[in-house]
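Review form for a predicted model. The reviewer records the input and the model, then writes brief findings.
Reviewer: anonymous (R2)
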Amino acid sequence: MSAVVYDLREVRRARYAVAAVFAVHGAVTGSFATRVPWIQDHAGVSAGQLGLALAFPALGASVAMPLAGRISHRFGARNALRGLIALWTLSLVLPALAPNLLTLCLALFTYGATAGMSDVAMNALGVEVENRLGRSIMSGLHGMWSAGALIGSVGGTLAAHLGADARLHHALAAAVLTVLGVASCAWVLDLQPAEDEEPPPRFALPPRSALLIGAVGFCAVFAEGASLDWSAVYLRDQLETSAGLAAACTTGFTLTMAIARIAGDKVVDRYGSVRTVRTSGVLAVLGGLLIVVSDHPAVAMSGFALMGLGIAVVVPLCFAAAGRSGSNPSLAIAGVATITYTSGLIAPSAIGTLAQATSLVVSFGLVTVLSGGLVAFAGVLRAGDRDRPKVGAPDTAVPDPRP
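Model under review:
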């Protein structure tokens, strides 16, 4: 990107704009997750078939995510994010329209492709803002994503409780979120490539540092994806609750994630990434154990809430650590984004496939084991602690740090 000097007020405004985009992105996910049982019934698919269909967002994201950098290079960061976030919000209407397994797979492929590209674009801009402000903000940005997911899941819970048709619910949600997302992009940083800058490759292997950091993110995002898409189904099928109470479980999960992420920057600045992630892993494991041993909805809901609290700050810390690791931070960020995002989209399929062969209890036993990986491998984030930006940047112009 070209060397540009930014006034600190502009950077602060860009921070709020990116935060709003994160919230919109999360609201789409929350709106979808709470209506998965309705979509399953409407398409007439079994748990195993639903798991197969939920693999298609991962396929779509894997194909499309590498294109996000080229789109940003071609159109500039602001215009690219504006277009990609609109495609993502509008894709919300597709899964509920699917009448069978084939069309559901196609709808979810498109859903995943637009989700992945917009996710990469907004995280890249978030890291740019963090670098210019000189202090940690990524946990807070992901907290806004969780807050958006909470708002979306609250709307979905209400719609499920009222027995509303998900096609109407998602059409209305998509219209509102598209307007909000596109409007918010007006104030994000408008990064443009230098005249002689080559476009990024369509595909490049991530550096080894990104693979190690991505492994930590993989564990957390697997638990997040499994909980978002299967918590409502777990309560409905395993504990025989009502649709409204099952959807409320997803809301509780997103609530604890939102609270932990919003408070996460201060916690990380005080205790460091490694201690924070290890403690988070312990909480996630305890939550998983509550889920698998529960015989009452309140116990399972508490487990999902504790799981959300435990995994909340891991992904933002992985992005921040990737941005400060290796000789090519942008490539490391893209590598971690691909690993973590693909994990979240693979998780629902893996949970469904294992549930079909065994049970949902066994599936969430796997989630609990993977959550233990946060405790075991948190040390790979230590380099990010050493290089963490100092809080309290002077109130002056902030230059673009890249040549």
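Findings: The CA atoms of residues 73 and 193 lie 6 Å apart.
Further findings: The chain has a mean pLDDT of 86.
Recommendation: see findings above.
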